[in-house]
Model the fold of this input.
Amino acid sequence: MILWSKHGIRVRKLEEGDADRLVQWLSDPRVLEYYEGRDRPHDMAMVQEHFYRERQIEACIIQLDDRDIGYIQYYPVDPEEREVYGYGEGDGRIFGMDQFIGEPDCWNRGIGTKLIQGMVSYLTNTLQADTIVMDPQTWNTRALRVYEKCGFRKIRLLEKREWHEGEYRDCWLIEYSPADREEKQMNRYSQTLNHLVGYFESELKALPVEEFRQKPGPAKWSKQEIVGHLCDSAVNNHLRFVKIKLSAHPVSLEGYDQERWVDLHGYQEQYTKPDIIMLWVMLNRQIAHVLDTLTVEDYGKACILPGGGEATLDWLVSDYLEHMRHHFRQILGPEPVERAKAGK
Done:
C-alpha cells in the first residue's frame, strides 16, 4: 500500500518480502553507524523481531523511482514517552518518526530533505498531527541540518538517551509544528507561568507562618528560604531570557552559587512571609511579560549552558518551569503540584 508519492520518492507499507532487504541494509557498517550501531548487525531473526512484531509502529519502505532505498517508520507517541519529552494530554496528536537511507549511493543527493518534507506533509495533512518529534543523536550533525532545513527545531537536550556502540549517547529532542500552531505553543509558556504563580501564591499564603519559617536542620533551607531561592532563580533566568532574545549570536550563560545567594540575601531573617511571597510573584509576572514578547524564532535561539552544553531558549524556559515545580513539591508535597499541572 502506497502512503504518498512526490518528486520521484514513494513511501509504501512494509511487506514480508522486504525482510531480506532490511537484513542487507542493517548488516552494512556504513548504514549501521547512523542507525543501530556497527556492533549490532542484524540477521533475519533480529529483523523479524524488530520490524515485524511491533504493531504500534507503521513500518514503511522508501522508494526512489521504483527502487527500494531505505526504511521509515512513524507512530503515535505513547503517554510514557510524552512525559519524558515534556508533553501533556492537552498537547494534541503527537507522532514520532525514524528513518534511514540504506543505499549509500543515495546519500548527499538531497533525497533525505525531500523524504522528510513529504513525510511531514503526510503526517500533518492526512493524519492531522499537531506535533512531530524525533530524537537524533547530537553527533549526527548532517542529519540535524536536514531536519532543521525541513522546519524541525531543537527543543531540549536528552542526556544519555540512547545506547549506541557501547555507550549511552546524548540526543536532541527536535519538534515540528504547523506554523499556525507554533505561536500558540509559544504563548502557552506565559500562560502556564501565570497560572502557576497564581496557584502557588494562594497555596503559600495558606501555610502557617511557623511551618513556613521552620528549618528542618541547621544546613537545610526552610520553606521561606526555598521561596527565596526561587526568587534568585527568577532574577538569573529573567536576565538569561532577555539576553538571548536581544542577541543575534548564541549567549554563554553564567551559573550562580545558589547557597551563597540565599545566605547573602538573608531570606530567613530579613523578609516577612508576605514580603517574600510578593517578591516571588512580582519577579515571575515580569518574566511572564517577557515570554509574551518572544517569537518562534526567539525560542529556537541557541545558548551555551554553564556546564558547556548547548540548549535552546525553548528548553531553558521549559527547564525553568520544571525547576519551579520541583521546589514546590518540596514546599507543598506532590499532590498540589500535580493539581497545578492539571489546571485544577
Observations:
- The two ends are 45 Å apart (CA to CA).
- DSSP finds 15 helices and eleven strands in the chain.
